[in-house]
Amino acid sequence: MGRLRKTEDDADRYLTRRSAVYYYKRRVPADVAPMDDRGGLINFSLKTRDLSRARRLRDEYERADNELWAMLIRGEGVPESLRKFRIATLKAKSLGFHYRTADEVALEPLELLVSRLEALTMDRGAINATLGGVERPQVKISEAFEVYLDQIAPAEVRGKSEGQRKRWKNGRKASAAAFIEVVGDLQIEKLSRDDTRRYYEHWLVRIAPKDGKPSHGPSIGNRRISDMRVFYREYFTLLGEPDRRNPFDNLSFKEKRGKKQRARPPFPHEWITDVILKSPALAKMNDEARGIMLVVADNGARPGEICNLSESQIVLDHPIPHIKIEPRDDPDDPREIKTDSSIRTLPLHGYALAVMRKFPKGFPTYRDNENSLSAAVNKFMRENGLLPTKKHCLYSFRHSFEDRMKNRHVDAELRRILFGHAIDREEYGEGGSLELHLRQIKKVSLPFDASIV
């Protein structure tokens, strides 16, 4: 018999051979052994002599065991019926089966039932898992959602900053609360298409009423339904049912796109140069908010990209000073970036360069707090007559930058790179040098006045 492999990076870990047949052999960790009724050692035949197939099967059983043991360790806070059901599904998975209740097992083909019975000879403690001894839990949507936040969300929010995690969770909590308010706190197992259609129609009369003006746009309805769709899918995947029919599928509202539908119009160029930049009121705005506003106005970056710059992303001791808009994997200061196409390096010139020289370590007041920044800047501009219409806001500077690039005939593909938008073709190369990008930004820079900074 081969030896028991333990090293995690060993390609043949947990594999042994007996009479040329491969076995999965693994010790149960001491801290979960009292909770795992399979005994201290897992050892059963993989029924194959092919090493590649044995490794694939080993990976599935290893993953299932890891999930099971993690569930046993962190089982607190989970409804008892759900905890027992989840443990049963993971045990079944670790033995090579999809979990089925006793009634469902009785309907399976004879050969599959025999396989389940054979599994009991190698693991006497797996009766519930193989023969469906645990009933499906009757869990309310609110209870299932707590499980989602506790056991699924941590993987989803990994890499996000504290503020990003808070906004992510609050958004999903709002979606679950809205659904429960309209449809009720039903048992998630019994949630039907009729229930989700009722919720869809709730939003339909607000987005596209037969009479009167809509009270909401399609984006909010789509967001609320999408959040519930993902929650439902991930919850039942956790229970071992990744292919379960999702009653939220194919429910959405059409969102019109295009220049005419832009909710945040660009500032006219003359409004920026003759009204905003020449207003004495700018001196009363707090330095960090004014600085971020000027950078956004001059290089078109998203406000959140600028207010969340760290010192390492501001490079001033370079022949071409620049900022690096990129995710941070620092566990003490993580941050996600909106999209892969948003990752870019922007050369600094004019107001942007002057501001970053003034704030070489970034903007601590608004770090991880872009909503506070937008609220402060928009309120200030509104109170000081710096907004030409009610629809204009801080983000309008970004659209103005785009218009300036178009008016100065900056190449369309380069515009997308500088703007942080995706290129609609397979990408080759790095999209041009920093020198090239600087030349294009100089073409569209605003008239510079150092006294404003």
**SS strand fraction:** 5-15%
Structural class: mainly alpha
Sequence of strands across the biggest β-sheet: 1-2-3
Radius of gyration: 29 Å
Helix and strand run:
EEEHHHHHHHHHHHHEEEHHHHH
> What is the number of helices?
17
Approximately how much helix is present in the residues? 40-55%
Mean pLDDT: 84
Q: State the shape.
A: globular
Number of strands: 6
- Uncertain runs: 1-5, 121-125, 427-431
Largest sheet: 3 strands, antiparallel
Report how far the terminal alpha carbons are from each other.
76 Å
Characterise this structure.
The chain has 453 residues and is mainly alpha-helical. Helices cover 47% and strands 6% of the residues. The protein has 17 helices and 6 strands. It has helices spanning 51-73, 80-94, 102-106, 110-122, 127-131, 141-156, 162-183, 193-207, 218-238, 269-276, 287-299, 303-307, 350-358, 370-383, 396-407, 412-419, 434-443; strands at 15-18, 21-27, 41-45, 314-315, 322-325, 344-347. The chain has a 3-stranded antiparallel β-sheet with strand order 1-2-3, with helices on one face. It has a 3-stranded antiparallel β-sheet with strand order 4-5-6. β1 (15-18) and β2 form a beta hairpin. The N and C termini lie far apart (76 Å).
Any chance you could write out the topology, listing elements then pairs?
Layout: E1 15-18, E2 21-27, E3 41-45, H1 51-73, H2 80-94, H3 102-106, H4 110-122, H5 127-131, H6 141-156, H7 162-183, H8 193-207, H9 218-238, H10 269-276, H11 287-299, H12 303-307, E4 314-315, E5 322-325, E6 344-347, H13 350-358, H14 370-383, H15 396-407, H16 412-419, H17 434-443
Helix pairs in contact: 1-2, 6-7, 6-9, 7-9, 11-13, 11-15
